[in-house]
Amino acid sequence: MFETVRPTLPILVAAIALAGCNPGADEAKRQREACDAGDTAACNAFARKLQQGDHVLRDVARAAGLFQRACDDGVADACATLGTMYLRGSGLDVDSALAATLYEQGCDGGAVVGCTRLGILLRDGDSVTANPARAAELFRRACDGGELEGCSDLGALYAEGEGVASDPVRAAELFRQACDGEVSDGCLGLGGLYAEGMGVSQDPDSAATLFKQACDADNAAGCFRLGTAYAAGAGVDQSFEKAAELYQRACRSRHGEACYRLGVLYQNGTGVDRSTGRATAYVARACNYGYAEACPGKGGS
Asked: How far apart are CA 250 and CA 184, in angstroms?
């Protein structure tokens, strides 16, 4: 028979002490109590824990109510967060027009992430009339406030000359600032400039390095661009096998052109075993993901 090993008293005491010591849960309790006492900044903080399930049971509907309470009391960050919940339908019915209003309220109150989010809506004409020039102003405001996604978005406008005069050099500066701050779209944008020689000297090696940096951060477009670099042997040794692997990774994240390129590789048996069935399936997926060239009558089968 095996002898049962019983923990010694010091071990039991330590275990009990650790079980009762949970800083995250204690913090959530303090925030809830402060919120109940009327501290709306605490309501905003506790709502984030409810939204994420951080040391409390996840409850997005209750989080939305607390964000609304905090927003109504002037907590700008709560307005911006609530805007995203309405935009995505997270615990609330989708209402992109209300999302835009909340983003503006947050931005005006100093939550620069609200400036970025409103700028994206205005850039894309999503639920509001497209206004690239105002989007640029909002991205600039966000970037100046330290919101690096806004820097990347502003860089994209300078690269395209949309809402601002085209200025690839300024675009490169903004993309680099964002990329240095680990915003993957900044790395992607800067890589694109190096690939084309816009605003910077053409440098396929640097482009491929930046595309990899974006891809490693799970940026589907970064994986796609790195895949095209491998297919062309631009800045990396040519490898259709590696290109197929990267296209597949991007395709899984609903990047339509990556699905289409992968379909072409299967159709031709380049880097993968030839398979008409898989080729057809990937081209169809590309069309479903919005890549028009893959749709029947647009180049797709």
From this structure: 14
Has residue 295 been placed in a domain? yes
Given this model, what pLDDT does residue 300 score?
59
> What pLDDT score was predicted for residue 126?
83
Identify the segments of the chain with pLDDT beneath 50.
1-20
Please give the C-alpha separations between residue 74 and each of 41, 46, 48, 71, in angstroms, as whole numbers.
9, 16, 17, 5
Question: Phi and psi of 11, rounded to 5°?
Answer: -70, -40
Distances (CA, A) of 215 to 159, 226, 228, 258: 21, 8, 12, 13
Token pair in block for residue 194 = 């190096």
Number of domains in the chain: 1
Q: Name the pTM for this structure.
A: 0.85
Residue 263 within a domain? yes
CB 115 within 8 A of CB 147: yes
- The pLDDT assigned to 1 comes to 39
